[in-house]
Here is the input.
Amino acid sequence: MNFLQAIILGIVEGITEFLPISSTAHLTLTAQLFGLAEIDFVKSFIIIIQLGAILPVTWLYLKRYATNWLVHQRVIIAFLPAAVIGFILYKLIKQFLLGNITVMLWALALGGIVLIVFELYYRKRPTSLTNASSRIQDMSFKQALIVGCAQALAVVPGVSRSGATIISGLSLGLARSTIVEFSFILAVPTMAAATSYDLLKSAGSFSTDQFGVLAVGFIVSAIFAQLSITFLLNFVRKHTFIPFGIYRIVLAIIFALTLT
Here is the structure.
């Protein structure tokens, strides 16, 4: 992987991390277009630069909740399912799931269908059922745990972490703005843990040049993630996620036809 490819992948990661379209799938498909070998470094790169995209969240939100223990409790509870599953299934995820184009395309398509169906159903729900919790600290521990379990589904490439958490939160009656914000914050410990664990396992095999490529992708993803966050916060105030669902299905079909 060269620096230009790292920059492009960083842009892709930054733009897609917080949108319900699976940043992992977009990174993998972009790497496929570049013809990058499915070596461990490329897989590690895909995992690690996602932490770069999380950095703007730290600035935007963690300062706001730095002393709010009620929010921290809910983040910890929601973080645990992904942490446990990621730790137990790390080898399976990295060796057999990450980079599996077939699994990824099916996950993209099915996830798109779920987004569309859910939003059509959600429109018909009584308003009283969609405003149960307007603040993160109002979430129950049970709601936080369920959202965390939904996030854990994203160990399957193509299942959007943000999409899974947002849909689960909406289905539990959380306000759309609340669950979007919670999804942003929950990404911080999740991606920090995933990156730290992968570096612990793999960093010893990286060359100096590869660390440089990682640094470039990391920084670029952080810059473009800021744009993605701003876009999504403005988007959810006026729109549903149906366009993202359609996009996922179309993307999966295009790559399925192209790669077969």
Notes: The CA atoms of residues 109 and 249 lie 4 Å apart. The chain has one domain: 3-259. The chain has a mean pLDDT of 86.
